[in-house]
Amino acid sequence: MTALEPADVDMSAPLGESVTLPNPVGTASGCAGYGRELAAFVPPAELGVLTTKTVMVRPRQGRPTPRMAETPSGMLNSVGLQGAGVDHLVTRELPWLAERGARVLVSVAGERPEEFAEAAARLTGRPGVVGVEVNISCPNVADRGLVFAADPGAAHEVVAAVRAATDPALPVYAKLTPDVTSIVDVAVACVEAGADGLSMINTLLGATMDLDTLRPALAGVTGGLSGPAVRPVAVRCVHQVYAAMRDGRLRTVPILGMGGITSGADALEFALAGASGVAVGTAIFTNPSAPLDVLRELRQALAERGFASFRDAVGYAHR
Amino acid sequence: MARPVQTPAEVLGIEPAGAYHRLLLRAPGVAEAVLPGHFVTLAIGGRDSATPLRRAFSVHRADPVADTIELVFAEHGRGTRALARHRPGDTVDLVGPLGTPFPVADAPETAVLVAGGYGSAPMFSLAEAILARGGRVGFVLGAATADRLFGVAAARALTPHVAVVTDDGSYGARGRATDPLAAMIRAVGATVVHSCGPMPMLRAVTDVAVAAGARSHTAVEEAMACGFGVCMSCVLPVAGADGATRLVRSCTEGPVFDGTTVRWPEASPPEPSPSVEPREVREVREVWEVREVREGVRS
User: Considering the entire predicted model, what is its pTM?
Assistant: First the structure.
């Protein structure tokens, strides 16, 4: 293929059948807050999509500190879904984001399927919201049994409840964990339940010990591993699920790829594996401007390889 | 908080200061917005580093004319060791200013500034701000040993009221920073105490200040990932005006808090069991010099 001018690459990306983003680079849930602080570095409108920190129906305190530990090429966090609740999001944060032209994917969670659905239902008709991400895979809840994404049946139940309660105009994404026997089986269950897209991946469950205190470094003992250390796992998951779509094992839906993306080259890896959008997460902590750097570099990386559009690169490794 | 900027900062100088390093950086657009108590974060080893989290440092000096800021840090772990290897001409990615600075009244006030180790780094510009408004200051500087004191001469240049304590008595009186605090508050007639140092010290300083009828402003330390308010790692239980305790971010709502609003028992990590703690670790914990014992803990 012949190299192109970066400015000539069509960067538009589908979020769902009814929603198209101007570019495929967003933020991963939990790594951009609700956008206000990040706006000092990244204007919200310049993101393809801004995924919020996960909200629940009621405010939640999260887990005790220490909540964070640096690990080789990554970090563990055990924040535990601290948040002000969906009403705060709806009344305070979404109007602010909408005024700035943000396209917002709201991450929702709950302790029961009905709570997920209730949070999602409150997003109907809210300005700026372009979709709902169902966080069925946060590892930082009190009981690991609550990770709905660890079981295809539970994942199906939650996604179906959210899909039924959500504005039909809004795509519903299911956020999957790699800590499962078969991520394809969970993806199949989610799509059959009505998921319009899949977010891959959430953090991996990990732990690290503090050699000064001789105790676990995190107060919650375990935490979610993120950062470049998990990137190969994430690319593998995207590749596996996209391959299953090509094989007809599940309907083809957009995949939002994430996990250790720090550069345009990393984003291109995800696209080649099958991601039709990408999200920058932990890299924001290293470099608050990371989403814009990734977007600029991705455009350049596509142009250098002769891709006239981002969409042409999606799944290219499967040809 | 000030609106932070991200900029490549050029290392202009790095030199030893007792047990610490002083790092002078040219940081265009940052110095002009720095107030006493603000901090900055540095990316160690660049974007592709296997040590991905930024390190946070309180600002010792900011010179808006020269566009420079000066930091003081100790080598404790992988990140600060790498930082200490920087040489003039190197660049390091800097974000700042961050955080909520020490409150300084417009009217003249009398304050005691208490610091452990290089926790004194932000205190000299704070003292100058108070003095510039016609106020008075006293200093209490504490450290494990003489070489871990920072800024004794700078403090004495600003005020005759300087108490120095070391754990081993190698400089000043033997003891802890809280030992001379009540006397210093009375000596200068302080209505406010500003402190910066490890959490157990801040808690003890708050107790002494309140007992003496003074307000207590403490610059806390909590492990941070982002430093600018999105990651929720560095939260601290703090009572609001309504009396309810909430987990608030020490990077944005702090690092400076009214010490009486911090729920110290819940905020401080549990002490390790003495029976399993190695001797050298216990010694570190028994002195004020425990800042950034864990990598990533704010200086």
Answer: 0.92
